[in-house]
Amino acid sequence: MSPDKAGPIGRPVRKSGVVCTAAEALSVVKDRAVVAVSGFNMANTPEYLILGLHKRYRETGHPKGIFLLADALPAIPDRALDLVAKDICQRKDKGFIRGISVPFLGFSPWLQRLVKENLAEAYSWPMGVAAYWFREVASGRPGVISKIGIDTAIDPRKGGGRLNELAAERNTCSVKRIMVGKQEYLLYEAPKPTVALVRGTSADKRSNITMEDEAIRGTVLSIAQATKAHPEPGVVIAQIRSVSAGASSPRAVEIPGPLVDYVVVSPNAYHWQVGSTVYDPAFGSSADAGTDVHQADIDPVQQVIARRVLVELVREAGRKGSPLIVNLGIGIPALISRLAVQERVADYIVTVLESGQWGGMALPGVDFGAAVGPFALSTMPDMFSNFEGGTIDAASLGFLQVGKNGDVNPSMLPGRLYGPGGFPVIAGGSPRIYFAGAFTAGDSSISVEGGGLKIAKDGEVTKFVGSVYKNFFSGNQALKFGKEVLYVTERAVFELVPEGLKLKEIAPGVDLDRDVLSKMEFRPLMPAPPKRMDRALFNPEPMRLAARLRSA
Fold first, then answer.
1. Are both 259 and 294 inside the same structural domain?
2. How open is the CA angle 164-167-421, to the nearest 5 degrees?
3. What average pLDDT does the segment 370-383 reach?
């Protein structure tokens, strides 16, 4: 029979990316599916699909026993995955989710409770490793091989990233120690996704997904590719805001249409650009971030810490003779980008965020991950390659505890399950790390007065401890690879040396014994009396750092 007279061959061929309702798309998700979800707080989070999948389970009992994989955290308090976890915890329902692997839980109090109450097995890998993992699985590899995590709480000899008893029992996501030649590495393995829930801005007539109004690009392409990879090609469902009748520019397409099975248009209420804002064009635009950033918006004590790090960055830019590429973590480090704008050195201190932003002014709190006026947006795997490979020049990250040998715990305490976030990859790969945080924690009354610091009441929680609760940065590994490490607080600056922590500076108005040494569980090295921190750090007016840089 000739081809033109042949009968039907196989099944009818449908177009890729069928536009349908959330209920129709999510009806294909099977029991015990491995569901990969994009999202960095609310940026790139397919909230409409997340809530729709949970709604289907509540109404029908299916899909049950799903395992969730995330590249970051698709939630903030009472939104997206946090809202699902809230319902699970309140009803003590173990039917919907059997397990999760999420790099950071800090903005999801209900997800933390779900983990603590052992309602699902839970794992937390470094964010960059999680983003890489999707790309590696998409390439047919077993997982990620990395030096990141050695001698930390992610090391299989120290917990392997398992967060609760169910995880220790089942070990669905594993971290294994392997040798490549004479070098030690960790192999990160997890089940391949069978369903992807991702988000873009719009879909064209071929169901190509574009991201023109998203604050980040995230890991959506790698998640889609990992889901579609063999041996078990899965289903990709994309949440968007609108459908276009025309064709997109090829360079604007983030996920090509043939990788997308279903397209769901979301109401604006479930498609916020960031946690506090439905849409702001400045979050995805290279528009100038401007200089109208008022010092009154920043806590004066936190400003001292951020300024001291900025001084170090300006000094390093002067030594390098070209712009410095610097990652900023959440909290006090994120303030550095605002101060760089104030001090008119933003062209010389190029800040980058783990979510993919180059330049601009980092947003704080639940909006962290977005920036005002970035000049470029990378995917998360591409950005983390800059971190792990040491392409960046420096990083400034927060800390919760610092150990006597320089180990750092950024976020974990008994009952506080924040996870490592992007911290281990950034700190492990950057050649220079400037940790930035308050010297103590708890209720305190500390003010900046007269070019110095006044401590009327100190925090009762000691942060410089003999041994950290959970280690996500190894001082020994940092020294092994020749990293430059400073620990900057409002009253003291320390440097990591082979013998331990050396006290370099103390603030004007601070008593060495009463305000520093007595508030530590160990005695730092002091081969010489510490210098006084620059009084200009404590004055309200700008420090004129641009002039310093020009004269360097």
1. no
2. 70
3. 93
